[in-house]
């Protein structure tokens, strides 16, 4: 049986060196943070899926150790002890398979009658990794819902457990008029019967909310938020396997609902696998971006101030949505900085690496309408993109595009 410990005893059970996976997303642990406070572990490298604006993993660097991250967050950006690997999910899984963590520190639900702890709302990569780890340390949290889908972890497989109650990390991106207008546009092209993948943030959530009148939908996504519960309760989702995901990030009503049989939590080896995605008819992907250029290339990882994210699963789902009825949607406001900066840009003015190529996107949606890029050549693509840019920037964009081609 595992040792029951307090946070201040964590150091006695942590290895001195190696790679350590630690819970993040909605399952970021205050007990692990407390236990690592003041602890020196310069030989350890911590890794996880850190979500910008939700997780603050600076405490990991305070141990003297290193951090390998697949998404850049502000707390890690300035350190020379951070390795940033901007990889799509299929490559993250390959990297973790080649570099299996020696230790997992994970938040789980209390054991059920069979002694099994669920990975709950943060199933994700931990479900693919835990069996190969030498050391398993649990934060057993009664607030973590026991979810269906991936097999849980036997309680007696843990080396040590901290038992404490903590609310899951919550996020409500809210809404605004622009997001609602974008959602209304998207609802005109997303059909009944579609299976939906969405990214994070205000606009993907608004798009899902706009579909409450649709029927026979399903969710197959690496991540879900509160809008998924809204669709479920509105009767928009099908009865058979309505929701498949790996992580939930939302508010308490969503977390409380995750024990329902409508939700299946699976690891990325299933949710992001190309054979799985290619077998889904009418897979519709909905992701946001920082910029889209006039050719349809998508930029979602950096601003002029530096990297703020990583590519995530968008390219995996874009590849998977090439099957029958698949649609790939990028949705974003036409401007930033209160209308002072266009987010539709000429290719030479784009910031950061290309996150999705110009043939990985079918539609670009802003509050000004829908650009259908399917089957269009260079000139037609430019015209379609100009039509969804803010009118105040169209002449300048047209001039910049002519400079590029001259």
TrEMBL record:
Domain Acetyl-CoA hydrolase/transferase C-terminal intervals: 250-399
InterPro entries found in the cross-reference section: AcetylCoA_hyd_C, AcetylCoA_hyd_C_sf, ActCoA_hydro, NagB/RpiA_transferase-like
GO BP terms in the entry: acetate metabolic process
GO molecular function, one term: acetate CoA-transferase activity
Claim: Hydrolase is one of the keywords in the record: yes
Keywords: Hydrolase
Domain of life: Bacteria
Protein name, per record: Acetyl-CoA hydrolase/transferase C-terminal domain-containing protein
Species of origin: Marinovum algicola
